[in-house]
Amino acid sequence: MTEHVDTLPAVHETGSGDTVLFLHAFTLDASQWDHQVAALSGDVRCVRVDLWGCGTSPQPPPDTPSLDSFAASVLAALDARGIDRFSVVGLSMGGYLAFAMLRLAPSRIRALALCSTRSAADDTPRREDRLAMADQVERDQSVESIVEPMIERLLSPASRGEAHVADPVRGRIRRCSPAGIAFAQRAMAARTDSTGMLGSIDVPTLVIGATHDAIIPIAEVRAMSGAITGATLVELDCGHLANLEEPRAFNEALGSFLVPAVAAS
Ligand code: MLT
User: Which end of the chain has less Cβ packing within 10 Å, N or C?
Assistant: First the structure.
């Protein structure tokens, strides 16, 4: 693992103890995890990164977009902090990145929480939609056209009506640069199918699915969880951004899984 490590992501650290790495969803940034960091940073060292071009990270490097290259840069950022082993919490795109990290550095991962995510790669229509969005934001040199469509996809109708949930999500989308959005979409479109590796995951794993998720159907989450030996499945009654829509239930599930799993590993 040597590529693309010269463009390190922005890293935000809170708390001390064993490290838990939080990987955010597409069009968001590390602040997506504020509720979880508030709940868990008394027990563990919460490390959050911003994807290139999002939050306070530098712009993506000019190489071919790939989630593996961003995952390699996250590993390099952890190396720079002297962090060897860690648990990973990834939501949606953050879950796709967690699979990339498992491929690159399996022995470093102690426990895994896969939230509102899938192991499968994209089908052709989904890939084409991603490439079209990447082209559009680059053409516009603005992310404004994707703000409301993303809010529709990311949040349940109930959460869309809650300004305290929806407005910060709008703010995070607007903080992403066109280059960051284009990188993420092209990298996700090109990502490897991780379904074949589910049976070989041998660390404690929590899977969180959302019953009103417009992006990842709960049936797919159940199937993914069933393919991971010993995985714990928790289903929350909300939309895709489960950690923002149902923070209390999400934190209960994550805390009761992570704190014992980290202590035992
Ligand atoms: C995300 O929430 O990370 C993305 O919407 C996931 C995706 O587009 O596949």
Answer: C
